[in-house]
Design brief:
Blueprint lengths: L2 H18 L6 H10 L13 E5 L6 H14 L4 E8 L9 H11 L4 E3 L4 E6 L2 H9 L4 E8 L4 E6 L2 E6 L4 H6 L3 H4 L2 E3 L2
Antiparallel strand pairs: 1-7, 1-8, 2-4, 2-5, 3-4, 5-6, 6-7
């Protein structure tokens, strides 16, 4: 690889980082995206839906997975694809179901698994959602899109952002535990 190609790749990754706003993610994740040639792009949200966010307690990764499930259940749009970046990889000491779920995700051709992280895009099936829910503590970044490429939900760190019609917000909050439901905030 010549120096110009490396510089072009570096610039492309830097632009993606600025666009996505993932500068807070661990360098290992950004490096994995660069090595895999992945660009999540900034989520494009639908104009006709309101945007919200929920920040469950920092230690409650399961509440973030529950929030994601509630959004997907409440949305009138069908989730199509899932980009996920995990802080676990092939050399991570996982056993049992977490290891099985990592292998489920890594079996997709657009998923790259390194020693200590995993990143890629998969069709959003029940199997893929179960894998993410099992590995919730290891999610660094996630975005769910519909078939038109519009974002339904984005999970970055401890925050889940989402778009649903105003009339469906109560479906989301009613599906959450009271402490998490109280943390839902309007973004626009």
């Amino acid at each position: 690889m010549d120096e110009d190609d490396t510089r072009a790749d570096t610039e492309r990754v830097s632009e993606a980082i600025e666009t996505v706003g993932v500068d807070r993610l661990p360098d290992a994740v950004v490096d994995a995206w660069a090595r895999a040639g992945l660009d999540t792009g900034a989520p494009t949200w639908p104009d006709e839906e309101s945007r919200f966010r929920v920040r469950p307690r920092a230690e409650d990764a399961d509440a973030r997975a529950d929030a994601l499930a509630a959004v997907l259940d409440a949305s009138p749009r069908r989730p199509d694809s899932l980009f996920v970046s995990l802080e676990v990889g092939r050399r991570t000491d996982l056993t049992g179901r977490p290891r099985f779920e990592l292998e489920t995700l890594s079996g997709h051709p657009e998923v790259t698994v390194a020693d200590d992280h995993t990143a890629g895009t998969v069709p959003l099936t029940g199997e893929a959602f179960d894998a993410v829910a099992t590995l919730a503590e290891d999610v660094a970044y996630l975005v769910v899109r519909d078939a038109d490429g519009l974002a339904l939900a984005e999970w970055r760190g401890e925050t889940v952002r989402f778009a649903v019609p105003e009339t469906r917000l109560s479906s989301v909050t009613e599906s959450l535990d009271a402490a998490t439901a109280d943390r839902v905030e309007r973004l626009d």
